[in-house]
């Protein structure tokens, strides 16, 4: 276990350039291509065989040898399956004919009893059952291999994509480092600026940002509360305006009456009799007398 930790730490300490070079070495030593995969099929070089001794192949095989592709390999596989099926049928037919002829012309001739036929049929049925089970097992194995092959192909494509991204990382890292250096140079002239927040370290800057965020959230909450009170305040304002309208009218009338009374009073002081003022005095005197009489 300590060795594994040590190797993990060593891998983590590697730079992107070292990792990229390691991947390139692995890809060069384990190159995967459709040509490499088709080499076991085309192991015999046609150029090394004399022209007169070259075996005749089908058109499908010739086309696949020139430029092997997944589609051509699939066509080759189907073609060879058909050929082997025909070959098996021909072999079984020839062997059956040969045995039948030998049984007839043999000395003495081979005579098979019905009991032997029954035993052979039973053995044949058992062999067919075993063969069917083996075929099913082979089919399942082929499906599993195809699934694993497709999965490995997807993983390989993912590795290629990540490798391409990794190749771009050194340039991006270099550009970012240069940008950081430029920003540091630009920031050196701002260290003595009038804004102290610009000179804070990262931790305090983060705390300040969080504090401003909390203040903004509090203001947003208060704003939402005020927005919810707006309809009620509008209704209250409309009610107050409705109540204020008669008062405004009354105030206007009272102001006009006061001005008129003041004008009449000034006119009375100037020698003109003011009936309204005298009437008011008489009313007040009468009111006082009535209150005294009624003891109110």
UniProtKB/TrEMBL annotation:
Pfam families assigned: Sos7
Kinetochore protein Sos7 coiled-coil domain: residues covered: 82-156
GO terms classed as biological process: attachment of mitotic spindle microtubules to kinetochore; protein localization to kinetochore
Residue stretches in coiled coil: 117-250
Taxonomy, superkingdom: Eukaryota
Keywords: Coiled coil
Compositionally skewed regions (Polar residues) per UniProt: 54-67
One Gene Ontology CC term in the entry: kinetochore
Segments of this protein annotated with the region Disordered: 44-67
InterPro entries linked: Sos7, Sos7_CC
Protein name per UniProt: Kinetochore protein Sos7 coiled-coil domain-containing protein
